[in-house]
């Protein structure tokens, strides 16, 4: 245990020495003995005592009380006073000294001195701990962002922290002692009705932790509305920490180191409020953004689907009163090309504004794609809905002006009555989408209504059905590879080739590509199918040694050629499978190559350098074929079958095939004639002679099996 260090200040030398002896006998360490204030102040800073035993009356009339206060203020060392006086005046003076922790009446014995020192130091250390707690609590209450308000049982304000002062827009001096309702009132967010504060507070009685509320707003005295979350709890034990609670005692009598709030009886309350006005505002913005399109302010696709689901649920099977319309801006890509995306955005916002103005107020309007809008006409019979939508087509036909450019703008609309027979909202969407697509194919600027008699729309709906079938078939690996031989016509034309074909298996039926490839091309599923074919060919080629010399001709669609991720996929799989690129001949149609000339040229050059060969498929069908041919580094010209199959009876087609072959020879390219379906065609081609032939006469398509 630490030995207590003591300094003695006593002007009577004999008494001072006697006190020193007694203290040392009791086990205390006396650091110094002084007879006057000046000497003590000069040396005490280097002695670091725990306590000073101080005579009140020092030599030359010096006041020990003044000295004690200076010692405490400068060094934090408390004093115990030695005095022969116990009158009330002396006691009162001692109480006013900061750092005075006790006094001894002369004469005193050792036991009295020891008890007084120990108890006084214990009391001093306890007060120091309380002071630390007071400072900590004061900082805590001041730094907390929430508003903390202490109230008496009648709702009168006893204490405010800075957060509360800011919330009620009043200082503590202005608010303490006044009812809380003079500064703020509580209201229910839903009903707007005032909630009496005391009734809210009474709910907290008997509840551990009080009550929590978050559906309340406040009205301040200035009329400001503030949304809050908060808690109210009652003070069951009360806090006795100062004189502002009406105890009648002074702060020094009760607590020399008071806490930052007043004494509160057991009937009071603690109210904690958090201002969530800004959080609520941001939450409102987030909720709005979650159901609205950020550009046009219309509802977004997800919210339209929710509304469409409700319309379908309430639909009358006999007399449908809701109509769904799918609206698409015709040639929107041209708008973006001419005006840029900023101009395109302006057109979209302008279109949204017109839709709001031209459609009935009860309508649901949403932007569901880049230039696509969904509309639900509510409570409108089919005939009236058609008239509204036809007027809309007319209203949206206009000249769009942006900066110094003008462009005519029209829209296409597909519409369908919402009835339970659709089954789900996606069939409603598909029907309207199909009708809109037909309207666009017919030139746009028109309305197409879905009906059972509309064969064009029904055909398009059939195509849409194919989308799901194809996606499922790919997932279930129900695509299968077939191959058709490409045979050299002469002895020195090179190795045989196999053109890779694809079939779709559904139960016991094989579906030919003519049924599903056009749908896949229209709805951008070809990149998915082409990747599957490439993957299957590489796996087959590496696992089948008997075909190590076979060159596989694989068709690539226009969409795959434009797919930014395809080259990396293709390169990665070639490296992973170690498949020789020289065993791949990639076929691209002439039309695809011409329409995407730069992209096709770069693609061909990149993979030719790796060892792949290239064939230009359907050659002769494109315009300016030979003009483009000299800039395309392909290896083979695959002559379009429409010329080949009539070569026997049509001299023009024969000469055309011959000229293609001749030009190909000049350019260093070999020719392949497809659709060779008879011996007569085969022998006619041999007179030219083309380099390779392909068709049912030389080999029908067969499953690609090991």
TrEMBL record:
GO terms for biological process: phosphorelay signal transduction system; regulation of DNA-templated transcription. Keywords: Phosphoprotein. Residues 463-706 form the EAL domain. Residues 239-248 have a biased composition (Gly residues). GO terms for molecular function: cyclic-guanylate-specific phosphodiesterase activity. It holds the Pfam family PAS. Residues 133-205 form the PAS domain. Residues 320-452 form the GGDEF domain. The modification 4-aspartylphosphate is found at residue 55. SMART domains: EAL (SM00052), GGDEF (SM00267), PAS (SM00091), REC (SM00448). Residues 238-259 are annotated as: Disordered. Residues 5-121 form the Response regulatory domain. Signal peptide: none annotated. This is Response regulator receiver modulated diguanylate cyclase/phosphodiesterase with PAS/PAC sensor(S).
């Amino acid at each position: 245990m630490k030995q207590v260090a003591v300094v003695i200040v006593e002007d009577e030398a004999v008494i001072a020495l006697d006190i020193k002896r007694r203290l040392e006998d009791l086990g205390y360490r006396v650091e110094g003995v002084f007879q006057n204030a000046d000497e003590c102040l000069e040396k005490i800073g280097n002695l670091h005592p725990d306590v000073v035993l101080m005579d009140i009356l020092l030599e030359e009339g010096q006041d020990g009380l003044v000295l004690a206060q200076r010692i405490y203020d400068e060094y934090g060392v408390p004093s115990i006073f030695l005095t022969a006086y116990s009158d009330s005046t002396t006691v009162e003076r001692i109480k006013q000294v900061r750092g005075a922790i006790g006094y001894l009446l002369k004469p005193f014995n050792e036991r009295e001195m020891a008890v007084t020192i120990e108890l006084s130091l214990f009391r001093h250390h306890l007060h120091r701990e309380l002071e630390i707690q007071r400072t900590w609590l004061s900082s805590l209450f001041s730094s907390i962002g929430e508003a903390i308000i202490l109230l008496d049982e009648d709702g009168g304000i006893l204490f405010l922290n800075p957060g509360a002062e800011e919330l009620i827009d009043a200082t503590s001096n202005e608010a303490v002692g006044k009812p809380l309702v003079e500064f703020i009132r509580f209201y229910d967010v839903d009903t707007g009705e005032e909630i009496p504060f005391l009734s809210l507070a009474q709910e907290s009685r008997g509840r551990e932790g009080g009550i929590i509320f978050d559906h309340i707003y406040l009205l301040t005295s200035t009329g400001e509305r503030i949304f809050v979350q908060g808690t109210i709890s009652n003070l069951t034990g009360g806090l006795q920490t100062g004189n502002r609670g009406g105890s009648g005692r002074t702060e020094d009598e009760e607590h020399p180191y008071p806490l930052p709030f007043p004494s509160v009886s057991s009937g009071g309350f603690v109210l904690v409020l958090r201002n969530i006005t800004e959080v609520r505002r941001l939450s409102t913005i987030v909720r709005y953004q979650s159901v609205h399109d950020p550009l046009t302010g219309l509802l977004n696709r997800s919210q339209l689907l929710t509304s469409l689901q409700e319309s379908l649920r309430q639909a009358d099977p006999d007399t449908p009163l809701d109509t769904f319309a799918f609206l698409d801006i015709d040639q929107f890509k041209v708008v973006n090309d001419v005006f840029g995306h900023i101009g395109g955005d302006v057109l979209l916002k302008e279109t949204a504004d017109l839709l709001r103005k031209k459609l009935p107020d009860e309508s649901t309007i949403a932007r569901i794609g880049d230039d696509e809008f969904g509309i639900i006409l509510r409570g409108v019979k089919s005939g009236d809905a058609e008239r509204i939508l036809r007027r809309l087509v007319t209203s949206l036909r206009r000249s769009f002006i942006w900066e110094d450019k003008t462009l005519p703008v029209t829209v296409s609309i597909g519409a369908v009555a919402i009835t339970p027979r659709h089954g789900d909202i996606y069939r409603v969407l598909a029907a309207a989408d199909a009708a809109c697509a037909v309207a666009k194919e017919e030139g746009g600027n028109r309305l197409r209504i879905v009906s059972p008699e509309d064969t064009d729309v029904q055909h398009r709906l059939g195509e849409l059905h194919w989308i799901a079938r194809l996606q499922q078939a790919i997932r279930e690996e129900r695509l299968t590879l077939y191959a058709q031989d490409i045979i050299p016509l002469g002895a020195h034309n090179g190795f045989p080739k196999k053109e890779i074909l694809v079939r779709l298996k559904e139960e016991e039926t094989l579906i030919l590509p003519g049924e599903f490839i056009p749908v896949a091309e229209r709805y951008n599923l070809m990149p998915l199918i082409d990747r599957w074919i490439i993957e299957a060919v590489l796996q087959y080629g590496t696992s089948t040694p008997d075909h190590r010399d076979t060159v596989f001709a694989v068709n690539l669609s226009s969409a795959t050629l434009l797919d930014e991720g395809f080259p990396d996929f293709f390169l990665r799989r070639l490296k992973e499978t170690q498949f020789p690129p020289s065993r791949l001949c990639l076929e691209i149609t002439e039309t695809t190559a011409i329409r995407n000339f730069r992209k096709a040229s770069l693609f061909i050059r990149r993979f030719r350098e790796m060892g792949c060969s290239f064939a230009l498929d359907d050659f002769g069908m494109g315009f300016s074929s030979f003009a483009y041919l000299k800039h395309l580094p392909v290896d083979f010209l695959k002559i379009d079958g429409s010329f080949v199959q009539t070569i026997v009876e049509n001299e023009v087609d024969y000469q055309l095939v011959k000229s293609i072959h001749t030009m190909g020879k000049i350019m260093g390219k070999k020719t392949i004639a497809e659709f060779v379906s008879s011996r007569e065609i085969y022998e006619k081609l041999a007179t030219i002679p083309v380099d390779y032939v392909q068709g049912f006469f030389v080999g029908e398509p067969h499953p690609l099996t090991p």
